[in-house]
Amino acid sequence: MAALPALPRKYHAASIWLLYAAGLLPAAYGFWLGATGRLPGNPVKEFEHLLGLWALRFLIATLSITPLRDLLGINWIRYRRALGLLAFWYVLMHFTTYMVLDQYLNFPAILADIAKRPFITIGMAAFLMLIPLALTSNNWSIRRLGPRWVKLHRLVYVIAAAGALHFAMSVKVVGLEPWTYIVLVALLLGYRLIRPTLRGGKRRKPEGAGLRGGQVRSAQAGSP
Ligand code: HEM
User: Fold this and answer.
1) What residues have CB less than 8 Å from 221, skipping those under 6 apart?
2) Where are the domains of the chain?
3) 206: how many CB neighbours lie within 10 A of its CB?
4) How far away, in angstroms, is 54 Cα from ligand 1 center?
5) Residue pLDDT, tens place only, 65-105
6) Which long-range contacts (CB under 8 A, 24 or more apart) does 102-106 make?
7) What is the pLDDT of residues 30-48, one digit of tens each?
8) 153 near 46, Cβ under 8 Å?
9) What percent of the chain has pLDDT over 90?
10) For residue 84, how many other CB atoms are within 10 A of its CB?
11) With a 6 A CB cut-off, is 126 part of the ligand 1 pocket?
12) Alpha-carbon gap, residue 80 to 86, rounded angstroms
């Protein structure tokens, strides 16, 4: 397959910042629509849904980076951290919208919701698991944690599965949209499981080995 033209190295940093800016546009646009009364139906629910959907999209985009490189030779590893952090910011905004605009910071009601409604319990668990990943998405943590960093960040597969399940359970009828996300997440998880077999003996060392020497780049290139 023909390789995509490579982006000159001097533009890498700028392209990552551009991704952060572009990635936050749906939230800003949704907020503007809501604030100016242009969101249809229940604007709070609409905004909450928009944020939840983008969180799941960014999680899926994060998980797609490795298969894209393995299967199509497209190396966008440099964007993976930004995509993962965007997913985190969207979940945080989704959760904040739920707490503030949906539940008016009524903590007993929020706690009861988390305890009694399984789809909220699952969403909350996914959010809690995302926090350590977001906090360790920096070069210092990669160096410090070494191979444990890669192990910790494998949690992103559990989080994506929980996010898709949370979505499917939040709707009355599981239609095409939730199914699309479930299938995408299942394919990405399935790929992760068969990846060692597909790659055969290509990489015998555990992923993330070699990090101790400060080779942050190799951790960024390893799975997830
Ligand atoms: C990784 C974490 C999460 C992801 C990926 C996620 C994603 C989603 C998605 C895609 C939807 C459905 C949007 C639609 O119907 O169009 C949704 C709905 C919802 N989520 Fe989350 N969510 C997460 C965490 C949370 C958390 C932590 C809470 C609150 C504690 C929460 C509360 C809700 C609520 C209340 C709904 C709307 C249900 C309704 O229609 O009434 N979510 N979420």
Assistant:
1) 77
2) 19-197+210-221
3) 11
4) 10
5) 999 999 999 999 999 999 999 999 999 999 999 999 999 99
6) 102/44, 102/45, 102/48
7) 999 999 999 999 999 999 9
8) no
9) 84
10) 23
11) yes
12) 10
Answer yes or no: is the C-beta of 75 below 6 A from any ligand 1 atom.
no
**What is d(CA 159, CA 210) in angstroms, rounded to the nearest whole number?**
27
Sheet strands (E) in 14-166: none
- 204 has pLDDT over 80: no
Residues of the chain by 3-state class (helix, strand, coil), percent to 5: 80, 0, 20
Residue 7 has φ and ψ, to the nearest 5°, of -75, 130
Distant-in-sequence, close-in-space partners of 186: CB < 8 Å, separation ≥ 6 = none
Q: What string of H, E and C letters represents the secondary structure of 34-65?
A: HHCCCCCCCHHHHHHHHHHHHHHHHHHHHHHH
Q: Could you report the per-residue pLDDT of 100-159, keeping only the tens digit for each? A: 999 999 999 999 999 999 999 999 999 999 999 999 999 999 999 999 999 999 999 999
Cα–Cα distance, 134 to 84 (Å, whole number): 8
Q: Rounded to the nearest whole angstrom, what is the distance from the C-alpha of residue 6 to the centroid of ligand 1? A: 37
**CB 136 near ligand 1, within 6 Å:** no
Token readout for 45 is: 């629910």
pLDDT at 199: 86
147: number of Cβ within 10 Å: 17
Coil, strand, or helix at residue 224? coil
